[in-house]
Design a protein that fits this description.
Quinone Oxidoreductase, Chain A, domain 1; Rossmann fold
Length: 323
């Protein structure tokens, strides 16, 4: 079968579209024909070596498709079922063997929707529902509000009754964030988001800042918080955050700082299913809109990475094997 692998860390030229052995399911695994694979910043971090893995790397961690075969101890899935997953290495491929414990049934959803919500939708869910459980009356700051996680996070924050201040790089992106429900959107290329956030909140600051940008925004995010507020760093699209002096948290209002990951919030089968059930139900019910920003054949994964790294994309980027 065809897959995307990385033999040496580097730029997009490090992505190789090549033949690899077909996988076969183990006793507790399911073999799936991949119909769509999600493209995420963690894939870039794996490609560049920022998050080092043993080489060669089979790239990709998220996708959706049809079950081809099940291992002898699998009873929850059968051939023909439409399923989705996250956290499965080697998902940039035509077929993948997935532990049955990591699979979610896509009742009523398409492969495009399934592959677009597993990593980013579940991330938005844990951020708004668990890391800082938003309540009616809370005000939150969402960076990259027109991105893949951002658009979903804005919508889930609104479902929970929060007021949302988003940031975006262009007026076109700002319009997408507003359409997703953001109450205020700051075009950060024209306005400094920190004083503008203070102005919008009448000087009080926000309860939580959700920051996936990292190096260029984290200090402003910290200063945008109200006393006892929380800075949630869950990405670093502009680069890693430098070491932080804990006294900064004290001086700015006894603040909290956390750097969560999806793996810890879906560590058990029960947690994964509960979050996925919420997100898929919202999508089916029309409460959560999924935006597909761009689609590429699997062989053109390099172009997908170029677009993602340019930070000019909106919504989700997908790869399609066999196209």
């Amino acid at each position: 079968m065809k897959a995307i692998r990385v033999h040496e860390p580097g730029g997009v030229d490090a992505l190789r579209y090549e033949d690899v052995p077909d996988p076969s399911p183990g006793e507790h695994e399911v073999l799936v024909a991949v119909e769509a694979a999600g493209v995420n910043f963690i894939d870039v971090y794996h490609r560049t070596g920022l998050y080092p893995l043993p080489l060669p790397i089979a790239l990709g961690r998220e996708g959706a498709g049809r079950v081809l075969e099940v291992g002898r101890s699998v009873s929850d899935f059968k051939p023909g079922d439409l399923v989705a997953w996250e956290g499965v290495p080697g998902s940039y491929a035509e077929r993948v063997a997935v532990s049955a414990k990591r699979l979610i049934a896509l009742d009523g959803l398409s492969p495009r929707q399934g592959s677009a919500i597993m990593l980013q939708g579940l991330t938005a869910h844990y951020l708004a529902c668990s890391t800082v459980p938003l309540q009616p009356g809370d005000v939150c700051l969402v960076h990259a509000a027109a991105g893949g996680v951002g658009l979903l996070l804005v919508q889930i924050a609104k479902l929970r009754g929060a007021t949302v201040i988003g940031t975006a790089g262009t007026h076109e992106k700002a319009a997408l964030a507003r359409n997703a429900g953001a109450d205020h959107v700051i075009v950060y290329t024209e306005q400094d988001f920190e004083p503008e956030t203070r102005r919008i909140t009448n000087g009080e600051g926000v309860r939580v800042a959700y920051d996936s940008v990292g190096r260029t925004t984290w200090e402003g995010s910290l200063r945008s918080l109200r006393p006892l507020g929380t800075l949630v760093l869950f990405g670093q699209s502009s680069g890693p955050v430098p070491p932080v002096d804990p006294l900064m948290l004290s001086r700015n209002g006894s603040l909290f700082l956390t750097r969560p990951t999806l793996a810890h919030y879906t560590a058990t089968r029960e947690a994964l299913v509960a979050r996925a059930n919420d997100v898929t139900a919202w999508v089916r019910g029309g409460q959560l809109a999924v935006r597909i920003g761009a689609e590429f054949p699997l062989s053109d994964a390099a172009q997908a990475h170029r677009q993602l790294e340019s930070r000019q994309t909106t919504g989700k980027l997908l790869l399609f094997p066999g196209s």
